[in-house]
């Protein structure tokens, strides 16, 4: 029987044994709270044999929880120093495969050629948004993404129109998935303790988008323009986004939206109406 890695003394012992100094630059904050690991595993609703992609296994803390739950885990770690550690800490789990690589550069479909898989990760916070957006935009065959992120990022992902947290990330995440904040995690659950609070968020990927758009490219172009300068009115944002005065009048009229409103007040359906009207112009 293997000791549970998600404990402070075990983690410190592993780090000391391998002479590892944790890298701030790589976002290394390792979990030392077994309840949090159990909570993440539960949020992923795993059944034995489920394929799981883990980003940044570190010293194998969460990987161990996933492996114990019977998942077939592919874990991608950038820090070469940790490969020897993982070989040791995860020895005996034949349902785990560790790969050295950068999650933003690696050809994921080559590493995990499953019909469907889940993504589970305690993300390195310096690249949270690019990682989440990559998985969603590349339309990888994922059904669920369960990730630890900064609490503030989790709040942006689930935000509704009208609040300060609502932005392009909210729209994109909600277009592709149904996000839910599962639970909050305090700094003391990690070493070293990060400066911010964290949250575990579960994004269940939608089989169909929640709204009909004629062109996804246009939809995201409108969203980007609307949030590029939050203080601008919608009409001014569309102007900055490339429409002339007449076109703006036409688009807003067809969409039935008042150009004096601001992007941060618009729902996904309203962004879609503008994008569809814009597509119709051409
Ligand atoms: N999973 C471990 C845990 O829960 O304790 C470690 C999580 S730690 C927050 C993030 C991990 O991601 C670190 O091990 C770090 O080296 C790794 N990492 C950082 N950037 C990465 C990248 N671009 N691709 C893959 N892994 C990365």
From TrEMBL:
> Which domain of life, per UniProt?
Bacteria
Pfam family of the protein (one): RrnaAD
| Annotated InterPro entries | KsgA/Erm, rRNA_Ade_diMease-like_C, rRNA_Ade_Mease_Trfase_CS, rRNA_Ade_methylase_Trfase_N, rRNA_adenine_dimethylase, SAM-dependent_MTases_sf
Known CDD domains for this protein? AdoMet_MTases
Catalyzed reaction equations: adenosine(1518)/adenosine(1519) in 16S rRNA + 4 S-adenosyl-L-methionine = N(6)-dimethyladenosine(1518)/N(6)-dimethyladenosine(1519) in 16S rRNA + 4 S-adenosyl-L-homocysteine + 4 H(+)
Where would you find this protein in the cell? Cytoplasm
Which EC number(s) does the record attach to this protein? 2.1.1.182
UniProtKB keywords? Cytoplasm, Methyltransferase, RNA-binding, rRNA processing, S-adenosyl-L-methionine, Transferase
Could you list the residue ranges that cross the membrane? none
Q: Where does S-adenosyl-L-methionine bind?
A: 29, 31, 56, 77, 102, 122
Q: Name one GO cellular component term.
A: cytosol
The molecular function terms of the Gene Ontology recorded here are: 16S rRNA (adenine(1518)-N(6)/adenine(1519)-N(6))-dimethyltransferase activity; RNA binding
The Swiss-Prot or TrEMBL record describes its family as follows: Belongs to the class I-like SAM-binding methyltransferase superfamily. rRNA adenine N(6)-methyltransferase family. RsmA subfamily.
User: What is the recorded function of this protein according to its Swiss-Prot or TrEMBL entry?
Assistant: Specifically dimethylates two adjacent adenosines (A1518 and A1519) in the loop of a conserved hairpin near the 3'-end of 16S rRNA in the 30S particle. May play a critical role in biogenesis of 30S subunits.
The name of this protein is Ribosomal RNA small subunit methyltransferase A
* Record organism: Sporomusa termitida
